[in-house]
């Protein structure tokens, strides 16, 4: 008897025994489509796979069987999955890549070629190949989120056949780095987070473009009284921020921390109470103020106070310093009063320091 006729009878019997919609958990049939005789083949109007499907030798054991079906990392069945071992073509019978989508059918022209949707939020992303109004310019659009597929109705990026890239939307974010990339070529652009500038690579060098960075400046005072002994050069713990543009004031630690490289005008002043020596009223006393950078002396200034004459002493220190990111600036003082003195707390008399970036 004709073998094809026998196969047809077997399939017909299966359809009669298991009509559409019926399920059988205990009596399941496994059908393997292979390329060797007497494998069944033909044209099927509809084919429904209840769990998993596979095409080809996916596990590369030179056999095509149930071991090629999709599984999860724990070797459990990956229900609702379909896998192919080689190329998958949509709209073409000659795919040349892992996924080849051809929009050659007239009814599909200028429609999205692919849509991805997040099941939780419903957000969609679509990709479409399009032809310009003149019929000659071709381009690819990426839509965020998916929309009707028309420019202006959503955020999208377009790549045309001339290798131009155009972005449509609210804003474009470029890569952020603290340093210039090691691998560079002309036309690269990024945002430098240390200098707060855009930089472009042109003619073999990195250059700033556009406006310069926002200048940083801050001022702090010592509001509470602080006892200052005569020994050493004690630090004045600046505890109150007057203003801070750039986040460089650190009143919790009584210091300034530089956030970007540049030139800065640093000014500090100290007004002392009358502190003439009790045993020698005619002796002059000296007061000094220091600008300390990273624990080392960057500047010091001093003044003499006439013990029996001057009610207070005042000293001002100021200098322009080139500072780098993370440099620490502090205020230190020294005096020869012969005893411990306390800083003044009046609004105009408090120890203070200000840092103003000038370039």
Which labels suit this protein?
about 350 residues; mainly beta; 6-stranded antiparallel β-sheet; 5-stranded antiparallel β-sheet; 26 strands; about 5% helix; disordered N terminus
What is the gist of this entry?
The protein is mainly β and 359 residues long.
Domain count: 4
Q: Helix and strand string, N-terminal first?
A: HEEEEEEEEEEEEEEEEEEEEEEEEEE
Apparent shape: elongated
Q: What is the count of DSSP helices, taking H or I runs of 4+ residues?
A: 1
- Overall average residue pLDDT: 77
What's the total count of β strands?
26
Which percent range describes the beta-strand content? 35-45%
Could you tell me the CATH topology label of the largest domain. Jelly Rolls
CATH class category label of the largest domain: Mainly Beta
Provide the low-confidence segments as ranges: 3-26, 148-152, 278-282
Assign the CATH architecture of the largest domain.
Sandwich
Task: Characterize the largest beta sheet: strand count, sense, and whether it forms a barrel.
Answer: 6 strands, antiparallel
What is the share of helical residues?
Answer: under 10%
Topology record:
Blueprint (H helix, E strand, L loop, with lengths): L2 H15 L34 E4 L25 E4 L3 E3 L8 E3 L10 E6 L6 E8 L6 E7 L10 E6 L4 E4 L7 E2 L11 E4 L4 E6 L2 E5 L7 E5 L5 E2 L6 E2 L3 E6 L3 E2 L4 E3 L4 E11 L11 E10 L2 E11 L6 E11 L4 E8 L5 E2 L9 E6 L2
């Amino acid at each position: 008897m004709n073998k094809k006729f026998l196969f047809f009878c077997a399939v017909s019997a299966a359809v009669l025994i298991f009509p559409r919609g019926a399920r059988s958990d205990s009596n399941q049939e496994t059908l393997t489509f292979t390329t060797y005789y007497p494998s069944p083949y033909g044209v099927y109007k509809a084919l429904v796979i209840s769990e998993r499907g596979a095409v080809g030798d996916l596990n590369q054991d030179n056999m095509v069987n149930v071991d090629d079906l999709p599984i999860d990392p724990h070797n459990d069945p990956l229900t609702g999955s379909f896998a192919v071992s080689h190329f998958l073509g949509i709209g073409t019978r000659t795919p040349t890549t892992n996924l080849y989508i051809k929009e050659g059918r007239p009814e599909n022209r200028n429609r999205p070629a692919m849509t991805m949707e997040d099941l939780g939020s419903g957000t969609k992303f679509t990709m479409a190949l399009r032809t310009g109004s003149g019929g000659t310019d071709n381009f690819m659009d990426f839509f965020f989120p998916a929309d009707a597929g028309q420019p202006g109705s959503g955020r999208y990026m377009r790549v045309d056949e001339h290798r131009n890239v155009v972005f449509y939307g609210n804003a474009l974010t470029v890569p952020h780095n603290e340093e210039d990339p090691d691998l560079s070529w002309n036309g690269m652009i990024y945002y430098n987070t240390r200098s707060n500038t855009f930089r472009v690579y042109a003619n073999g060098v990195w250059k700033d473009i556009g406006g310069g960075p926002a200048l940083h400046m801050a001022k702090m005072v010592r509001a509470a009284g602080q006892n200052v002994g005569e020994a050493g050069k004690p630090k004045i713990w600046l505890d109150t921020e007057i203003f801070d543009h750039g986040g460089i004031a650190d009143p919790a630690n009584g210091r300034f921390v530089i956030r970007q490289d540049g030139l800065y005008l640093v000014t500090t002043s100290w007004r002392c109470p009358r502190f003439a020596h009790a045993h020698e009223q005619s002796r002059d006393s000296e007061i000094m103020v220091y600008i300390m950078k990273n624990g080392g002396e960057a500047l010091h200034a001093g003044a003499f106070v006439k013990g029996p004459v001057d009610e207070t002493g005042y000293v001002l220190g100021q200098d322009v310093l080139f500072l780098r990111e993370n440099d620490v600036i502090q205020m230190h003082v020294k005096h020869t009063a012969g005893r411990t003195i306390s800083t003044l707390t009046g609004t105009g008399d408090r120890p203070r320091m200000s840092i103003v970036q000038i370039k």
